[in-house]
Model the fold of this input.
Amino acid sequence: MAEFCDVALPVPVHSSFTYRVPDSIQPIVGGRVLVPFRQRRLPGVVLKLHDCVPKVETKDLLRVLDTEPLLDGQLLNLGKWIADYYLAPLGEVFRTMLPLGAEFKRGIVYYITDHGQAALHLAGMSGSSARSRSTPQDQLSEFRVLEYLTARDSARAETLRSATRASQVVLANMVRKRWIAREDVSGTRQATRLVKVAVLKQAGDKLNPSQKQIIEALATAGGKLRLEQFNALQLSRSSLNTLGRNGKVEMVEEPAEFTVSQAKPRLLLSNLQFNAAQRAALEEIREQVDATNFSGLLLHGVTGSGKTAVYLAAMRTVLDVGRSAILLVPEIGLTPAVAADLHQAFGDQVAILHSALTDPERAEQWHRIKRGDARLVVGTRSAVFAPVSNLSLIIVDEEQDASYKQEEMPRYHARDVAVMRAKMANAVVVLGSATPSLESYFNATKHKYTLLELPDRVEQRPLPEVEIVDMRIEFQETGHEQVVSRKLAEEIRQRLDRKEQVMVLLNRRGYSPLVLCRTCGKPLECKNCAIALTLHKRSHRMECHYCGFTSPVPRNCVHCGSDYVYFLGTGSEKLEELLHGMFPQARITRLDRDTVRGREDFERALNALNSGELDILVGTQMIAKGHDIHRVTLVGVVGADAALGFPDFRAAERTFQLLTQVAGRAGRGNTPGKVILQTYFPDHYAVQYAAQHDFVGFYEKELRFRSWMRYPPYSALANVLVRNDDLDKALNWSGILGKWFDRTTHDGIRVLGPAAAPILRLKRDYRYHFVLKSSSRERLNALLRAMLTYAAQQKIPRTQINVDVDAIWLM
Ligand SMILES: [Zn+2]
Ligand SMILES: [Zn+2]
Done:
């Protein structure tokens, strides 16, 4: 038996920790153990069992939490690859990979000992504990604790302390005197969701009609109904309570059954007609899956070309041969309707993982996958870690979407992790998009991926015609700043007359994005960030879109007290108001983060549009993502080009993608669509190529710029950000690292900085950054690793340095 074990812990330290294994317990590699760490007890993942005596003193493992490995060899290796590639502590990577937080409970309980019983007895007789050196107050506390514990088997630490107001010191003293004992009950527990169920006990006479209705409903349902079904069946809760009191019905709690979605499915897999390009793409995917070797495919299909149908058919193939598949979708892409489609196609074989699940729900899904009950997994970013066995296929839908990049530690990109996981599993990875990222398309042109094209929309529907409106000319001709151009207004009017539908995109939420003082000229900024606050008119407050800070709408300038504050610019809330004014008869709804709180709200607005209850849908980029509304024949784009002014090398790519995506919403039914694209940059190539639906044209032009500037895909790029809420510290630390970079040789690596980050202050932190570019990823990562070692020697906290490898956001 191994004497020692190496454990990865969820702490910001780049090494594992060695513990001694007591004879009584048997840890396993890939399973979790509970260990003492500084003043705490932490769960960690066992990496290795061995007999090499460590040079430093070791502590004992406390307990084994899993008797079977949670992470198999492949997932352990994937975790190590992520830790290495993204310079993230391995324990933090494993924490992200295992969504089982709900199963681990920390807890301390106390109970009274025989000594304690005796002391209590004595104190009761003499009124004090004579031999104690405690102060009178402490004696009183001790007495209360003993009294409290003698009345029960044990008590949790928090309960005991709040009931007796005993301090930690008093309790520790009592443990030392052996009056009470302390036990650590931290550990795992099965996180099961329970629901209330009404169970039929006996039929009866003398029932009123609503009671009779309940008894009948229960009998029809086989004697059992979940309480949540009562509303849908219009059964009375109060009658149910009466039946409960009379013993006719019993209420019990049962583990919740898994339901993928309550929504109605929209498409039937068996009804899908595939065109030639779809069939060819599907054939190629099937061939690669059959070959059981790694291969990467890039599925480039224009908007509306039927990529989803190809995904589902490919997943069906995998399921039929008894293997597993994972489908990754962007954050907003996984609506209840998509889940319903999948459930319709695959039944209980499908598991869903996304960020709106509660912790117990996520743990439940995870176990279904681990047990092999669900062999198809659909989910957002972290579903790439789903513990499927026999993995054959990973599909990444909208592979260019920014939500695949995690913007906190570990800063992994789910698309790139998917490619690596497929390599390790000898599986096939399919990256799908209407607007592939430069990196992926570049890889396809270099034959690292096989390129599959779906050049046409389904049923030969044409791509929409795009008309550009130059807003500079609009200003000259009308004499004032327009939000909705004359051309767009005219086109909307025509659609309303013809009972067709319209979407209008303005990618900025709120009412006015800027408040300025006419007297001193200063803007109103967030307390925590160097960012202007946005006016939200309906909620009547100012809001920071970066940290969520809110403040009342100012009547006077906060800087000089002047009355002359004015509100500038237009957000989606104001656009909605303007459109109401222009088209008072039209039914208009807005879709942005202020109106959408959950997936259900999002789905509701889309359903209203689908069923014809809406004429105009206004919104941010949320409206641009992959849904399919047949009667939308006009898309208006109002100020989607603001990003072109950002100091970020991906600005053009993002703008091109957004314009293409939103234009793709038009004309997905039988009537051809049209797009009115209002812009202040009509000559910019991102705008021009988007208007011509010319991905390859855009790609080639953008690639020349990237090559010239040595940006990805021509280099590996990392953003190193040093931050602190104390400006001096942030400056000092970035200076220390800057000097280190200067005197360290780093051939073939360009280091830019330190420089103030484009957003100097964010969420209270002052921020300075370095941008590193290199054609050699190995050398880049070696330099970053050396920098982190140096930073640790200089006592710069690891938590105050963000190392973002393949950063997609340099702000
Ligand atoms: Zn002022
Ligand atoms: Zn803020």
About this structure: Residues 526, 528-529, 531, 544, 546-547, 549 surround zinc ion (ligand 2) (CB under 6 Å).
